[in-house]
Specification:
The complex is a heterodimer of chains A (about 110) and B (about 110).
Chain A (H helix, E strand, L loop, with lengths): L4 E3 L2 E4 L5 E6 L6 E7 L5 E8 L2 E4 L8 E4 L6 E5 L8 E8 L8 E2 L3 E5 L1
Parallel strand pairs in A: 2-11
Antiparallel strand pairs in A: 1-3, 3-8, 4-5, 4-9, 5-6, 7-8, 9-10, 9-11
Chain B lengths: L3 E4 L2 E5 L4 E7 L7 E6 L6 E6 L5 E4 L2 E6 L4 E6 L8 E7 L9 E2 L3 E6 L1
Parallel strand pairs in B: 2-11
Antiparallel strand pairs in B: 1-3, 3-8, 4-5, 4-9, 6-7, 7-8, 9-10, 9-11
Classes of the chains: A mainly beta (about 110), B mainly beta (about 110).
């Protein structure tokens, strides 16, 4: 039973480029959550998705950031026109239906903007 | 209302000592309180969790104490070992429903020989 899979593990982008981060939830999990962790800081909630639905995007920056969880395939966190301040570790977590018990994290994608 | 407070920010403990991390919350609708352990370069991993119908939960050297009336909970690590050196996050959610988990700011624990 594979855990939450995130790729790539490391991503380097130049300022102004687009970054796409992918997350495949654990088998049987239908809810995906994205968090951002800045160096020496905690985990900040960004967005909560179910298949084809955004449930809560209260933590998403208003511009340049978007997320989706299509019917088929992984969840995607997309950052357009990246800036240096976007450099962070982005973690995805998944949970089973109807509960946040068993909330499981992936290993994260470390984005560096140069 | 959604915030989870955590202290201390960093903690240094001698090998064999007790590490204690404290957390507090405001939203009385929270009903699930997990603790996560994170090593450098890794994702957070669930360590132990408690629900408010019990005051204490113990798993090996790790114990959560929960005070519902004070809206506080704490993690105790007995006989701390250098391998316990990591960042610890307390968290809260309305676990029995669709909801995100809210994390405290984290405590960096160093266990020195």
């Amino acid at each position: 039973n594979a855990g939450v899979m995130q790729n790539p593990r490391h991503l380097v982008r130049r300022r102004g480029q687009e970054a796409r981060l992918r997350c495949s939830p654990m088998k049987g999990h239908s809810h995906v959550y994205w968090y951002r962790q800045l160096p020496e800081e905690g985990l900040k909630f960004m967005v909560y998705l179910q298949k084809e639905n955004i449930i809560d995007e209260s933590g998403m920056p208003k511009e340049r950031f978007s997320a989706e969880f299509p019917k088929e395939g992984p969840s995607i966190l997309r950052i357009q026109q990246v800036v240096r301040g976007d450099s962070a570790a982005y973690f995805c977590a998944s949970s089973p239906p109807y509960s946040s018990y068993g909330y499981t994290f992936g290993s994260g994608t470390r984005l560096t903007v140069v | 209302q959604q915030q989870v407070k955590q202290s201390p920010q960093s903690l240094i403990v001698q090998k064999g000592g007790i590490s204690i991390i404290n957390c507090a919350y405001e939203n009385t609708a929270f009903d699930y309180f997990p603790w996560y352990q994170q090593f450098p370069g890794k994702g957070p991993a669930l360590l132990i969790a408690i629900r408010p119908d019990v005051s204490e939960k113990k798993e090996g050297r790790f114990t959560i104490s929960f005070n519902k009336s004070a809206k506080q909970f704490s993690l105790h690590i007995m006989d701390s070992q250098p391998g316990d050196s990591a960042t610890y996050f307390c968290a809260a959610s309305m676990g029995a429903s669709y909801d995100k988990v809210i994390f405290g700011p984290g405590t960096s624990l160093s266990v020195i020989p």
